[in-house]
Amino acid sequence: MKHIKAFENALTTIHGEGRYRVFVDLHRHRGRFPKATARFEDGEREITVWCSNDYLGMGQDETVLEAMHEAIDSFGAGSGGTRNISGTTRYHVDLERELADLHGKTGALLFTSGYVANEATLSTLGKILPGLIIYSDELNHASMIEGIRRSGADRRIFRHNDVEHLRALMENDDADRPKLIAFESVYSMDGDIGPIEKICDLADEFDALTYLDEVHAVGMYGKEGAGVAQRDGLMDRVDIIEGTLGKAYGVMGGYIAAHETMIDAIRSMASGFIFTTSTCPVMAAGALSSIRKLRSDEGRKLRADHQAKAALLKEKFREAGLPVMDSVTHIVPLLVGDPEKCKALSDTLLFDFGIYVQPINYPTVPRGTERLRFTPGPVHDEAMMDELVSSILAVWKQLGLAEAA
């Protein structure tokens, strides 16, 4: 086969760097999350999932499932095409209205994923704003980086959460050129939070637009689950908010919320929106139900329970002498610092202890900071945490890993 050697060489490099991934074949059991059945070559076994981005278990929520059943019974499976041709349904319209209201904006736009939302929106802004300069946090999502690259705009990369470095970059550029600052609220690999207010202050000073990725925060923070910007009373200061329906909301899809004129222009120009079959009505219906539930008192209780579980797991890791990384969010990263040992730790936990947590290696995180990333939720009880800690300690010592200082 032509050029097959190049593909073999690429795979050899990935294997040699200890970052080759094998998918785990999971059968999730409705109503029993975080328990699941994993299928291996030698048979099946029950496992506990510790790395799901369905943070609140809304993918198992009865209200969400009922809404999806109703939608598929009423509308059928697919959407029927792109939004411009035949792919707009009542669910799409109602969901966009709900999202706009959630974020305090006059418009919102659905995409098939959070990745597409970032890539399509940021790449289009360069066409709408000639001469645009985009300032991007160095730890932004790959989808943001790709969208910025495709935008044709000049790029400036500022050190992670370093507002002074951002200021220095902005001061060095032509004051008359349009500017946009792209950053995140919750950074999912370290579990830290972007300085939203300080960045908004800088944006006001330099007449720049702000683009905030809240994918790991929507559903999780704020009175109604609109994200960290809502929690901190800053939504009105952010120009474009991007989110996902595939994490805390438990379904699938992505979106942006902004002023209706911005939304209309992006809707009319973004190729990633125009030429993509729209989200299935069943997905939109499930997301709409999930958002409405998480805006309620029940959602507020779920968020409080979730934060308590994350804090408890961090404390148990610290008490056990395990090097849990500093995190002010629901993300619980455990530093390993070696790609091969990180994968070995993950594999042993899965095969010997029935604990499923994926290794996070380069290029997702810098070399030397390889880690396991835990996402405890409301359904992870203390007995599961104690079992997790004791299992990690057993394997940790086998691999000769250092304990926390």
SS content category: alpha/beta
List the strand order in the largest sheet: 4-12-11-10-7-5-6
Q: Give the CA-based shape.
A: globular
Summed over residues and divided by their number, the pLDDT gives a mean of 95
Q: Give the count of helical stretches.
A: 14
Please give the share of residues in helix: 40-55%
Tally of extended strands? Answer: 16
Structure description:
Helices cover 42% and strands 17% of the residues. With 405 residues, it is of the alpha/beta class. It has a 7-stranded mixed beta sheet with strand order 4-12-11-10-7-5-6, sandwiched between helices. It has a 4-stranded mixed beta sheet with strand order 1-2-3-14. β2 and β3 (43-49) form a beta hairpin. α4 (114-128) runs parallel beside α5 (142-151). The model has no long low-confidence stretch (mean pLDDT 95).
